[in-house]
Structure formats: C-alpha cells, structure tokens
Amino acid sequence: MCFVDPRHPFITTLLTTGDFCRTEGNSQEAKMISFKQLPIEAKAAVAAGVVFVSMMLSRSYLVEKLDFRTRRWLLRLQMALFVNTLMLMGSLHVWRSTVTTFTRSSAASSFCFMLWKIAVFMFLALAHSSFFTLLFLVAEEPYFFSLAAYTCLGAYIILIFFLFTLGSVEQAYKFLAGRGAKAGTGNKNRTALKPVLAVLLTVVLTVVGLLNASQPPTVNSVEIPVHKLPSTMNNLKVVLLSDIHLGPTVGKTKLAMIVRMVKALKPDITVIVGDLTDAEAKIIRPAVEPLGELDSPLGTYFVTGNHEYYTSDVSNWFELLKSFNIQPLHNENVKIVSPKSASDWFCLAGVDDIEADVLHYSGHGMDLKKALRGCSNEHAIVLLAHQPVAAKWALQERPDINLILSGHTHGGQIFPLNAGAYLLNPFFVGLYKVGQNTFVYVSPGTMYYGIPMRLGSRAEITEIILRSP
User: Fold this and answer.
1) Cβ density class 386-416: b for 16+ within 10 Å, e for less
2) In the predicted model, what is the mean pLDDT of residues 57-85?
3) Tell me, what's the pLDDT at 10?
4) Which of 318, 401, 448, 453 is the most exposed place for a label (fewest CB within 10 A)?
C-alpha cells in the first residue's frame, strides 16, 4: 500500500499512472533482491556482526542477571558462533583456492581429487569445531579429537595467511608487469601454483609448530635488580608461571611435568600470573592435583587472567587453589618476610584481571588501590598483573612499583599472530626497564592456548633472581 499526499501535483500525476506505487514497490523489491544476491562472505560478515552485537549486549545488560552456569554457556556459545562466522569467510576462500581452482583441470574427475576434496572438507570442519570442544570435551587428559581440531585451527590460520600473502604478491606482479588483463597459460600455472605452495608451507610449519610445542618449556633464568630490596633477601628466587590453559588440549600430564620442573629449581616463591585454566573447577579438578606438590617455602601465589573469568567459576577456583596451599591475591597483598631477618620484607601484591571489568563480573575487577593498601614506598613492591596493559595502567597510577610480572601475550604463540600480539600490547615478551627503578617482565607462557603449536615463540618457565641494589 502507498501512503502519499494526493494534493501534491507531482504525486497526483503518479497516482493517475500508478507509477509511484510501482516505484516504491520496485525499490523495496530491489533492496531484498540485492541482499539475497550478496556473496556468502558478505552474509557471513553480517551474521558475525549480529553475534558480536549480541555478545556486547549480553556483557553489558544480561551478565549480572544470569546465574553462573547460564552465563558461562551463553558467553562460550556466542564466542564459538562469532569465531565460526568469521572463519566461514576464510573457509570459502580456502575451498575456492584449493579445490574450485582445479575443477577444470584434467585431474578433476580422478579418484585422488575426490580424496583431496574430502580431506579439505574434513580439515575445515575440524578447524570450525575446535571452539566447541570447550563446551563438550574437557577432561583430565585431552581428547584426541580436541587435539586434532585445534591443530587444524592452527594450520587454518597459517594457510589463510599464505593464501592472502601469495595472492597479494601475484596481484602486485600482474600490476607491475602490466598484464592484469591478459589471461594465458603462464597465468593459469601461477594461479595453480599459489595454493600448492601455500599448502606445502602450511604443512611444514604445522609440523614444526607441533614439534616445538611438544617439547618441555625452556627454563629462562633472569636477574632483576629490585630497588629497596633488603640485602638479606638478595638472590631470592621467584619462579614465574603463566598461561598454562588447562582445558581441551592441556591436561594433567603436562601440568605434572611443569610441577616437576619447578620443584627442581627449588624456588623461594612460586607465582602463577593468570590463565591457569579454560574450564570449570569441578570438571577439571583431577588435572589440577599436581599443583598440590608445589612447596615453595615463602609461598605459592595466584592472580586471575582473562580466561578465568570466561569460565564464570572464579570463586570455585579460588577454593580449589586454597586447598592446594596456593593463595589467590584478589586485589590484595602479602608481606614476604626474609628468612634471615623478620624486620626485612617486601610487598607482593596481585590485582584481578581487567577482563573482569569488561564482563561486569560481580565482586571482581582491577583495584590497584586496594591491592597496594599497606604497601608503602619505603619497601620494595612487586605486583602480579596478568595483562601488560594492566601493568602499564598500574605504573601510571603508582610509578613507585619496583617490579611487575605479567603474561597473557604468549609471545604471539604461532606465526603469523606474533605481529598482532606485539602491536596490541605495551610490553610484549621479556624484561623491560621503565624509568629509573622499575622493571616489567612478561612471560611468553608456560604452555599454550588451545592450538598445540609454537612458531616464533617458545613456552617458558621463568626463574627470576631478585638482586638487592
């Protein structure tokens, strides 16, 4: 139906001919047709946008109204759907590059090509299923399916990178050679060569990444001068663990190996700076039991990472860790007293991860003032903060902090994600000096998140020797 003003002379003419109604109807029909004719990549992008908006709305308005279990499932399901809709665009490109490109060749009707199509389809299906394993496949030890799915996800990321890079090089070559409009045998050969080369590079790097990640973490010994550290505490040994990510691909066996390595170092203090887990405490409790063997004489301490809040089970994790003699520092601090002199001590503080603020996680959130209450600048201050961004914020508020220990970045974990992790964090990996008397150390992670691969990074247990000035 058309709603118009019949008194307008132009409208009167249109009403007489019926052209106005037809124009409006045709316009609406054109809009519907144009949306239907959008390529599937564009539709996937729209779907990803819708899921992303729903995630933001859930985090802002629904989180505090939902019980923990419902919140946990909702956030994980939304994240899995969001990632999968984004991946769909890449998967279509992979399929067209590695399968559709060869459908006109003489080998397209062969049995081997049929097997290749099945292999590519299975590869993409496994990669897409990886994020759903967090919902259904978490146990004391990883399931083979989870390891296979996350391995395919890692290979998928590498393959997308090489297809894009080689495609860009090809287009640049055509532009510089002035052959963009020509189509010949050479062009066809180059088009076929691109996916073959991308697949070969992906296979090689995937194998290298798997082998690197399968090795025990390297022990990196670092000496850090700490301003105002008492001389009686010179050479105090702190072992730093971060980003173990107990869950679909890291289980009890890996954690037991880490604990054995830590005990062999005989640290005075052991600290775990977040992302210990990706699952609820009840489900994965058997895998956590090796932590009970940590016996550092001056204590073992823990602060939350962003992934603890994704589990929506932080309170139960705190209770579980306390049962293993591991003290969570929930925006609080402890005095680490010298074994040689009761009057010598420094302040060890820990803050909640900043993701708690984003998720509106009740009773949690970075509160530096609360964490440092009672820590005067007359004594050395060591802060545990999971994310390097939190370390930056802490130093802006309290430049008198002497040492901050962080994690989160994984050193990028796998190529080509290293560049993104470097650009997104104020401190990337290793030791940084800030000002005259402050240091920040960022661990590259003790294990890995999900993808059981390491490329351009190495898992690490950090042995920190504190030096008094």
Assistant:
1) bbbbbbbbbbeebebbbbbbbbbbbbbbbbb
2) 70
3) 40
4) 318
**For 326-350, what is the mean pLDDT?**
93
Residue 312's closest CA among 355, 271, 367?
355
Name the E strands within 113-235. Answer: 218-225
* Cross-strand pairs, 219: 461
Query: What residues contact residue 254 under an 8 Å CB cut-off, 6+ apart?
Result: 244, 447
- The DSSP code for 440 is E
Cα 256 off chain centre by: 24
As a whole number of angstroms, the distance between CA 467 and CA 226 comes to 6
Residue whose C-alpha is closest to residue 460's, from 406, 424, 415? 406
Phi–psi pair at 438, nearest 5 degrees: -125, 140
Q: Beta strands 430-434 and 332-337: pairing type?
A: unpaired
| Angle at alpha carbon of residue 27, lines to 25 and 33, rounded to 5° | 100
Can you spell out the DSSP letters for 353-387?
A: -THHHHTT-TT-S--HHHHTTT--TTS-EEEE-SS
Token pair belonging to 443: 């661990």
Judged against a pLDDT cut of 80, whether residue 12 lies above it is answered with no
CA distance 372 to 387: 17
What is the helix, strand, coil percentage profile of the chain, to 5?
A: 55, 15, 30
CA quadruple 64, 70, 76, 82: dihedral, nearest 10 = -80
C-alpha 460: how far from chain center: 17
Interatomic CA distance for residues 201 and 209, integer angstroms: 12
- Do residues 392 and 409 make contact, with C-beta atoms less than 8 angstroms apart? no
Q: Are 276 and 320 in contact (CB under 8 A)?
A: no
**Cα angle 75-78-84, degrees, rounded to a multiple of 5:** 140
Burial of 459 (0-12, 13-18, 19+ CB in 10 A): buried
pLDDT tens column, 168-204: 887 787 778 775 445 454 555 566 788 889 999 999 9
pLDDT per residue as tens digits for the range 263-293: 999 999 999 999 999 999 999 999 999 999 9
pLDDT digits (tens, 9 = 90+) for 98-136: 888 888 777 777 888 899 999 999 999 999 999 889 888
DSSP, collapsed to helix, strand or coil, labels residue 277 as strand
Stated pTM of the model: 0.83
